Amino acid sequence: MYKEVDRNKRNTFFLIFFFIIFIIGLGWALSYIFNNQLILIIAVIIAVTQSWISYYYSDKIVLSMSHAKGPIKKKDSPELYRLVENLCITAGLPRPKIYIIEDSAPNAFATGRNPDHAVVCFTTGILEKLEKVELEGVIAHELSHIGNWDILLQTVIVTLVGVIVLISDFSLRTMFFRRRSDGEGGGILLIVGLLLLILSPLFAILIQLAVSRKREYLADASGALLTRYPEGLARALKKISADKEPLEVANRATAHLYIVNPVKKQSQREEGNSFFANLFSTHPPIKDRVKKLREMVAK
User: Fold this and answer.
1) Model-level pTM?
2) CB-CB contact of 132 with 233 (8 Å)
3) Span 54-100, pLDDT tens digits
4) Which phi and psi angles does 97 have, rounded to 5°?
5) C-alpha distances in angstroms, 171 versus 158, 167, 177, 221?
6) Burial group, residue 34, by CB count within 10 angstroms (0-12, 13-18, 19+)
7) Is 295 marked active-site?
8) Which residues pair with residue 98 across a beta bridge?
9) Phi, psi at residue 227, to the nearest 5°?
10) Are residues 120 and 139 in contact, defined by beta-carbon separation less than 8 angstroms?
11) To bridge 74 with a disulfide, which of 81, 228, 239, 257 should be the other Cys (CB 3.0-4.6 Å)?
């Protein structure tokens, strides 16, 4: 487990490095194709600006989008506060701020830029519908995201994917504008440019989704290690996924943050067995996550 966490952190560095090189390379290629250095300059400015904003304000943005209230005090929810506090002591983490979403759909997520500036958020539904050992498993899962620095990785990845999409969209509009104004066919150059613009965002999003799925498996395992009771989290995952009520404040932009995909239609597709269903999913299938947790018990 500890080797896997260390390997995960090393992979995080290489992934972020690759993404940054990819953005610069995309900007350079498009600026060369269009003979316009402005594209490369815009790519760098957007990457730096969005990264800075996301690093310092990602938690506030996500909490605002989710209509979360807090941070709560111990008197507001004594049992939840105590569970978070005790598990933080066990994990050797500073206690994150705790927020609540007024929604009866059960779910939870963690966000922030590092363990010292982290937030865990729970819906009222998850507090009402889960038993203590199940809720403890969910809390341990979210604290594992914080301890493994997944919260920073997800923030950076989402930002970099957004930069690639913006660059591609800007370049695509520039391409068609030039075709109309210059009346030039472009031929092979146009085809190459179009393929680059279309495939770059798709490639970036697929990497984001793959990272999200891998991190969920690792947080499940780390959370089970923290509580020493994998069955608690396994039961929680089954209960949350079986709940038919959609989380009203959730959307596709924030779905990957939650312990279980809150977008019900997308969540149902993620439970499919097809290669493409899993390729485009934000979360691993619940049955696979539960199976891995129960295998830990068997071992």
Assistant:
1) 0.79
2) no
3) 778 878 888 998 999 999 999 999 999 999 999 999 999 999 999 99
4) -70, 145
5) 20, 6, 10, 42
6) middle
7) no
8) 120
9) -90, -20
10) yes
11) 81
